[in-house]
UniProtKB/TrEMBL annotation, chain A:
<keyword id="KW-0408">Iron</keyword>
<dbReference type="InterPro" id="IPR017896">
    <property type="entry name" value="4Fe4S_Fe-S-bd"/>
</dbReference>
<keyword id="KW-0411">Iron-sulfur</keyword>
<dbReference type="GO" id="GO:0009055">
    <property type="term" value="F:electron transfer activity"/>
</dbReference>
<keyword id="KW-0249">Electron transport</keyword>
<keyword id="KW-0677">Repeat</keyword>
<dbReference type="GO" id="GO:0046872">
    <property type="term" value="F:metal ion binding"/>
</dbReference>
<dbReference type="GO" id="GO:0051539">
    <property type="term" value="F:4 iron, 4 sulfur cluster binding"/>
</dbReference>
<keyword id="KW-1278">Translocase</keyword>
UniProtKB/TrEMBL annotation, chain B:
<feature type="transmembrane region" description="Helical">
    <location>
        <begin position="277"/>
        <end position="296"/>
    </location>
</feature>
<keyword id="KW-0812">Transmembrane</keyword>
<keyword id="KW-0597">Phosphoprotein</keyword>
<comment type="subunit">
    <text>The complex is composed of six subunits: RnfA, RnfB, RnfC, RnfD, RnfE and RnfG.</text>
</comment>
<comment type="function">
    <text>Part of a membrane-bound complex that couples electron transfer with translocation of ions across the membrane.</text>
</comment>
<dbReference type="GO" id="GO:0022900">
    <property type="term" value="P:electron transport chain"/>
</dbReference>
<protein>
    <recommendedName>
        <fullName>Ion-translocating oxidoreductase complex subunit D</fullName>
        <ecNumber>7.-.-.-</ecNumber>
    </recommendedName>
</protein>
<feature type="transmembrane region" description="Helical">
    <location>
        <begin position="246"/>
        <end position="265"/>
    </location>
</feature>
<dbReference type="InterPro" id="IPR011303">
    <property type="entry name" value="RnfD_bac"/>
</dbReference>
Amino acid sequence: MPITFIGGVHPKEAKLTSGSPIEVLPPPKTVYIPLSQHTGKPARLLVSKGDEVKLGQKIGEAQGFISANIHATVSGKVKSIGRFPHPVLGDGIAVEIENDGEDTWAFEITEHDYEKLTPQEIIDLVKEAGIVGLGGAAFPSHVKLSPPKEKPIEILILNGCECEPYLTCDHRVMLEFPEEVVKGGEIIARVVGAKRRIIAIEDNKPDAIALLKKKAADFEVIPVKTKYPEGAEKQLIYALTRREVPSGGLPMDVGCLVHNVGTAKAIYQAVRYRKPLIERVITVTGENIKEPKNLLVRIGTPAIEAINHCGGYIKPPEKLIFGGPMMGIAQYTDQVPVIKGTSGILVPAEGEIPEPGPCIRCGRCVDVCPMGLHPCIIVDYVENLKFDDAKRLGILDCIECGCCGYVCPVRRQLVHNLKFGKAEVWRKKD
Amino acid sequence: MAEKRLKVSASPHIFARQNLKFVMYAVILALMPALFGSIYFYGLRALYLVILSVAAAVVAEAVCQWAYKRPITITDGSAIITGILLAYNLPPGVPYWMPVVGSVFAIVVAKQFFGGLGYNFINPALAGRAFLMASWPVAMTHDWLPPAGGTISGLDGITRATPLNLIKAADVDPSVIERLTSLEGIRALFFGNVGGCLGETSALLLLIGGIALLILKIIDYRITLSYLLTVVVLSLILPIKGHPPYNILFQLFSGGLFLGAFFMATDMVTTPVTKRGRWIFGIGCGIFTMLIRTFGGYPEGVSYSILFMNVWTPFIDRYTMGRRFGTR
């Protein structure tokens, strides 16, 4: 029996870059660092126009518990503070920093012993470093490390599924930094007191599975079926434990905690070196990129810089997506900066947007929905602005994975309407 | 910034290969073996009836969409399918104007009046057939033709009857029934050289297309399987006019069952979207088919049983949604 969930789809994997070692993208001349890169409140601005900033200096302070610090990702001068393109919000307040090319650190990056630190001290270090989930949702990591007492964590799952087509950054991180991933996982397990530790990897990455089986003695390395969205939190927990995160609940409700492998590495660096999250690995890929690559890029780097490092476009681009093809967000400009939650830049060959047709009730969306929803019926309600009915049928359970939209033969705007309907239901709740 | 704007759209940005046209034209191709069969059995007349029916359906769709100021979508293939299915449900001897009238009713009244593709609540082709049955019952139940190569009973087709008619007729010679349900008779039913509607007689040729659609996952096996299994089970229980219920194969291969179970009960628009609902739909079709065949006024019940279950579809969907993830 393959380890997997119910529903889902199997799009062409198109992992063009799984064999390409991570290259370091030289820091760009200018970075644009948004103050909102995470789930929760935007950070409070700490610098003003004209300030000199150093690499790793905190330039945005977390506001409240669910928020994250923001750091300068180059050394140089704050050129301006204003509205710039933002990959999730369209546009948003960002700090424009002119790179002096020196990479002068704000503090010395050295190794620190962490064995004796208390869980709270580790959580504080993670918070200080501005770590957020690097899998895409960018949820502040220190929050996930602080579950309430009545919800003990039994199982820690490091998520190395990377089920989105095209993306390979997690795969490369596991291959090139296995020790850091494992040590980061050990730190997380210690903080939350998880007895069982799992690293889950889709079985299309046998090299990563073999390597981590060697390197991670304290972890069960479990290959899971290559199917989308295997790496979705609730689906992965179900696949591994047969536990269902209750509707409206969180993984901790079933004693689980899921962290992306890249996040584990970032947590290790935050604890071991006190290094803030100033860079991340992204996959620059797609049929319209000359040489698709995995790159280590500074947060705030405009997309076009990373694309040019990959030989640029083959022909003028029509569409550019941040993230993978199933859940990624289409951008209107290639000037938009890479942020903490950006896992990839995808430039497809064609930009054609299919014309949606009327629902023919084929039921394929029902067959593939990993949450057991009936997207075609819910969207009928949303299109008629009947949000109470949409809520009754479970619209808030939708994880926006895109399986319904992928299989829909008439290319209905299912995900768009599900997102819209969810937002309307939330608005009514408030 | 941003002098050149890129195209934006909601996720996902990739799609499965099977779009609407793929689905529709696959169904059309899957119906072709049966067309060749009907031309072989009944001559070029069968082809002309199908062409007239399809042409009428497509023209009716275009005119309707033009009149309603909707986009003209005749190339999507759905009207072509309606035309083919309607013709397949006619006795091969009907006058040439009949498929035209039936198709126009199917497209205009059963489909476009309700909003076009996706909004019709009953199968348009079957609605067209029901309309013709009600309006010209004599032609619809007597214009059978003997298939090429002769028929097994020596009566069906020639005496203006189908095997199901003969089984049901009160005055039929028992030896005819014997012959119909013999191995030879079943073989004739399976290959299709018996009297019957234009496209329904050859179980084999319909099976070829149907299995292709099942493999491509264009039709759902749940409806087809539960429909056929229900007929099998009920043919063990329900007697054929006092005769022992020995012949499952006779019930399976006769009449329009294969055409219905593979191509009409599986019509996406008018059947449930839930998996459990599809099982129920198929079982319901099977029950009503057998009830009509055994106790009803008509010899055959496939089309009315499907129409009847079509009407129940929204109700079935509503009560078969099942458990969502995380609501245990």
